[in-house]
């Protein structure tokens, strides 16, 4: 927002939908995070929790799709709060930008988190006497993120190839695993009553609260759809195509995730053994269905590579989000983090910051037995807050501030979607800060609370010493506000072009 459209639009609707599907990677994230929902409601939480999260995330995506249609800009949510009251706009933009940037950093961390969990599971399966140490997983986690960093920093030109490969690999893995598991397990399937009605509570919390905590799995598998907004400048007709992609990726993620989880539960075998398995529930289900350790590990290669692809793509989006926010003066040392490397043509300093913060996130591994839940909670909570602020502003202003646009929800549907989204965000923002187990100890505490508090303190301090004086919010372009221009040019490419002109 604030720049004329200059970036060449290379992505079709189908290719961008594939990219969004690769970012969400719903079936992989949902299956790899079964350790969240199986003890917190069992099959009931896995299936019906996902459907509940799917409906609520669909309401969120539809609500934000209206903004995307009106203002298809890479800044996304912290630009969209420009429809708020003039005096409040800088502060709301500041809060939204910090929440969104923090959420994407935490979401980047979940890639290495899921990958390290699966690799530790493989080691445990092949070596039953192996005793996993927290620092083992921490090192694998770092390796995952370093690989993602190196590819983002030094193989930027190959990123489109990676994203296309990720889409094909993900769809292939989805089909191959489903067919293989059903064929190998036949006819020893679990009953429909078990798959859709088995309730388990091993958390120590009351049954109702346990089921609600299991919603975190669905939240993880469907969050990140705003990545479409941060890449919107690279597709033709963004105000028309963008909203379709944003809503479509949530629908596809919910559908494929539900199908895949149903397949897993039908071939799950003894569900209590799956929950307690040191090989992770996903790999144990593979073993139960195929009867082969080697075959199960071969199948696991699909989600392992999917997670790596997701880590690469999410780190790209996270670094761009940090870069864009720094470019608007929203971060400490903004001039430093808004620099673009002349030769690599990437925001290298923003990439460094992303990777450093992700590694710091990983330190939770060393002190908490519930690090998995803490990191996942941080990503979902922060992103949901960033989704909720522009939606809330839109509602408080009577849904009348968005200009004429191609995607408009009918009044009743719009209000329903907005209110459902806000209710879900308000409820889960508190709920997902709960520890996964009761009684609560220092080890199983949900350190998302601490992460949330640290980010809040830093952002407030930065606002007091600098932001309230110098941060005016996103730069506004009159043409953009009137709906005549869809998006600004890519900030990174813009700086590179300026550098080239200076050299000439």
From TrEMBL:
Keywords from UniProt, A to Z, are: Amino-acid transport, Membrane, Transmembrane, Transmembrane helix, Transport
Subcellular location per UniProt equals:
Membrane
Q: Do you know which Pfam families this protein is assigned to?
A: AA_permease_2
Q: List, alphabetically, the Gene3D superfamilies matched.
A: Amino acid/polyamine transporter I (1.20.1740.10)
Topology versus the membrane = Multi-pass membrane protein
**Record keywords: Membrane included?**
yes
Give the Gene Ontology MF terms in alphabetical order: organic cation transmembrane transporter activity
Entries under InterPro entries matching the protein: AA/rel_permease1, AA_permease
Membrane-crossing ranges are 47-68, 104-126, 138-159, 166-189, 209-232, 244-272, 292-315, 348-368, 374-396, 408-432, 444-465
Q: Does the keyword Transport apply?
A: yes
- Return the GO cellular component terms, semicolon-separated: membrane
Q: Name one GO biological process term.
A: amino acid transport
Q: Mind telling me what this protein is named?
A: Amino acid permease
The source organism is Aspergillus heteromorphus CBS 117.55
């Amino acid at each position: 927002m604030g720049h004329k459209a200059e970036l060449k639009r290379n992505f079709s609707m189908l290719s961008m939908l594939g990219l969004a599907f690769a970012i969400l990677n719903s079936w992989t994230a949902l299956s790899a995070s079964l350790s969240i929902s199986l003890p917190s409601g069992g099959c009931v939480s896995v299936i019906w929790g996902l459907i509940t999260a799917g409906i609520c995330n669909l309401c969120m995506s539809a609500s934000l799709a209206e903004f995307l249609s009106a203002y298809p800009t890479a800044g996304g949510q912290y630009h969209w709060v420009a429809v708020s009251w003039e005096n409040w706009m800088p502060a709301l933009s500041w809060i939204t930008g910090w929440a969104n940037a923090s959420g994407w950093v935490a979401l980047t961390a979940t890639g290495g988190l899921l990958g390290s969990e699966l690799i530790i599971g493989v080691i445990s399966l092949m070596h039953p006497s192996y005793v996993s140490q927290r620092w083992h997983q921490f090192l694998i986690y770092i390796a995952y993120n370093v690989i993602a960093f190196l590819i983002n920093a030094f193989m930027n030109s190959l990123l489109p190839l990676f994203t296309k490969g990720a889409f094909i690999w993900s769809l292939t893995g989805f089909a191959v695993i489903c067919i293989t598991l059903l064929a190998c397990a036949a006819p020893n399937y679990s009953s429909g009553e078990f798959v859709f009605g088995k309730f388990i509570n091993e958390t120590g919390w009351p049954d109702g609260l346990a089921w609600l905590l299991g919603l975190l799995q669905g939240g993880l598998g469907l969050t990140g759809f705003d990545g479409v907004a941060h890449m919107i400048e690279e597709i033709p007709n963004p105000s028309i195509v963008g909203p379709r992609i944003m809503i479509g990726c949530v629908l596809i993620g919910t559908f494929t995730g539900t199908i895949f989880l149903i397949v897993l539960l039908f071939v799950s075998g003894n569900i209590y053994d799956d929950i307690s398995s040191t090989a992770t529930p996903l790999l144990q289900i593979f073993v139960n269905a195929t009867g082969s350790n080697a075959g199960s590990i071969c199948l696991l290669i699909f989600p392992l590579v999917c997670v790596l692809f997701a880590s690469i793509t999410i780190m790209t989006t996270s670094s761009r989000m940090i870069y864009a926010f720094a470019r608007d003066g929203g971060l400490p040392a903004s001039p430093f983090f808004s620099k673009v490397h002349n030769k690599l043509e990437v925001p290298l300093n923003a990439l460094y910051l992303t990777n450093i913060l992700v590694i710091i996130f990983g330190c939770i591994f060393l002190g908490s037995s519930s690090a998995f839940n803490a990191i996942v909670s941080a990503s979902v909570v922060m992103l949901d807050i960033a989704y909720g602020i522009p939606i809330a502003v839109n509602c408080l202003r009577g849904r009348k501030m968005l200009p004429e646009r191609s995607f408009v929800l009918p009044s009743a549907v719009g209000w329903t979607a907005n209110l459902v989204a806000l209710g879900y965000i308000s409820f889960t923002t508190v709920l997902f800060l709960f520890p996964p187990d009761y009684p609560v100890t220092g080890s199983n505490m949900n350190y998302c609370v601490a992460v949330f508090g640290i980010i809040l303190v830093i952002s407030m301090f930065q606002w007091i010493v600098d932001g309230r004086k110098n941060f005016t919010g996103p730069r506004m372009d009159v043409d953009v506000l009137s709906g005549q221009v869809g998006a600004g040019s890519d900030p990174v490419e813009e700086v590179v072009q300026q550098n080239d002109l200076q050299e000439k």
